[in-house]
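Quick illustration, no need to memorize.
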Amino acid sequence: MLSHISTTGVCLLTLLAAAPLSLAEETAAPVPTNFATPTVTQTPPAATHPVHYGHEGPNGLTIVDDHQKFKYIGCYSDTTPAPGNFRSLDGPFVHIPGIMQVTPCLNYCTNAGNSNSSTGKGWKYAGLEFSKECWCGDNLNKHSYHMVDSVCDMPCAGNNKTVCGGHLALTLYNATAPDANNGGNGGNSNADNSASTNQPLPPADDAAIRAVGLGLMGLTCALAFTLTM
């Protein structure tokens, strides 16, 4: 269950990060919860706050990429329209209009409770969507595909200079030090969990994978035959 949400500025996210949340059940997709709009005592500093910690995104926005644990791996499609209505990430989420920012979301996914982790907390993936949603998970849905960065074109609700996903599109981050007990990328081939590259793989295509496998097998047989001549 989500912890009671404080309505005081960014402290809301800090409190949420410390509270363990339940996993989304496999039989039903989680639906973002609309919390009461927090009382913000001052205008978010987005319009005047300079950004020096990422790289260029669409519409003059910056893709934040300076977190000590999570690294940006791309813009990925959400899977709500897919059969079964499962979301792209399988862990806890928070939906906070008005104050969502990238770093608090990544901190939230770093500290949110996870019974599958050896430390009892932290998730492999973190993603932002629709300017105000923060999603965590250990597995990326196999129907979620890597898209061009320009699809994730929505500014964060709490910092309009930075990217927080798009319409059914996640600005996706991957933990650089995955929990060994969880097996790296959780078995999903759509995103690479390598700490050295943090680069996503192309979308999985079973037919293409089988074709490559057969091609490599044929090449190996041909080489072996040549060496025995």
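The chain has one domain: 11-204.
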